[in-house]
Amino acid sequence: MSAQLWTDRAREHPLECDHCHYPIPGDPEESDDGRYCSIACREAAADESTLPDPEAYKRFVTGVEPIDSLVPNGVPADSFLLLSGDEGTRRAELGTELVWRALERGEPAVVVSFANPPTATLERFYGNGWNVLPALENDRLRIIDCFTHRLDDRDEFREHRTDWATFVGEAAGDAIVAVRDPSDRREVANTLHRALDDLEMTETGLVTIDSLDELESLLQEQLVHDFIKDVRATVCKARFVPIVAAATTAGQNGYPEEEYVFDGIVDLRLTDHLVADTRLKQLAVRKLIGGEVLPQWVTYEHEPARGLFAFGPNTDPQQVYDLGNASPRANGPR
């Protein structure tokens, strides 16, 4: 059947399958309790198995303004996304905000931390005014600690923590899972899967990996590739749980050159070509398999509590920045 004929038939039969919820392109398979697009769906429904509406879990809106402005129909939930950016582009803050927006939606999240101890990872939230303590206590946020066991003297590290860091570490104790050998990619992957099982993360939630650069420092290039390939298959594709990982600018060495392993790539850059004597941050979506993308750069800035926000090419930087101290204005354009 030609594509045009298939489309015409679908228009003539605008029914939705009671099992898979997709349009019925031809004559429906009738049953006492509904209409189905195929015998497989009819038999599955007869076995009392149900599927959720695909729109409820197959795409998600990140809640981060600059990204959502470029991806009008949402991000496919089975995506492994790479945040690839220069130093100074607020790449770490973007990863933190993505987790916070998931928690705001009522979804669980897992942070795999290679670059920082768990208390420092949590401090990124508090530094933005985002209190994650309730999410930790309600078992909606899990931190996989791939940092602490790399320290030569872990006891000394704990002894010299501030009162605040000690409090946060103790309050989050049940939500922190230590990986004893972060250089063992299978141990890291297995720990991630256990966390997903504990939080019942299938068709919901988000996983972030704070630094593929740190992972590369622990593993050989091929092992990093294998780790990404494995968790992409077992987490993103099997569970419909997206993973977002951060790395320095792609194309330098190692895994970034193998861009095909990522479903989407978000580029972050600094540019001084737009406004004299002002270095601005810009973001673009280089690719997104299965998603619609606007092919343009968005200029953005970051502000505590607000997160990343976009502003247009005709905006006067004086409206966004207090150029005297190079920080975003609290009353900038909103």
UniProtKB/TrEMBL annotation:
InterPro entries registered for this protein in UniProt: KaiC-like_dom (IPR014774), P-loop_NTPase (IPR027417)
Domain KaiC-like span(s) in chain numbering: 62-293
Pfam families, per database record: ATPase (PF06745)
Keyword Cell inner membrane: no
Top-level division of the source organism's lineage: Archaea
Keyword annotations of the record: ATP-binding, Nucleotide-binding
SUPFAM superfamilies in UniProt: P-loop containing nucleoside triphosphate hydrolases (SSF52540)
MF annotations from Gene Ontology: ATP binding
Signal sequence coordinates: none
Protein's recorded name: RecA-superfamily ATPase implicated in signal transduction-like protein
UniProt organism field: Natrinema altunense (strain JCM 12890 / CGMCC 1.3731 / AJ2)
Phylogenetic lineage: Archaea, Methanobacteriati, Methanobacteriota, Stenosarchaea group, Halobacteria
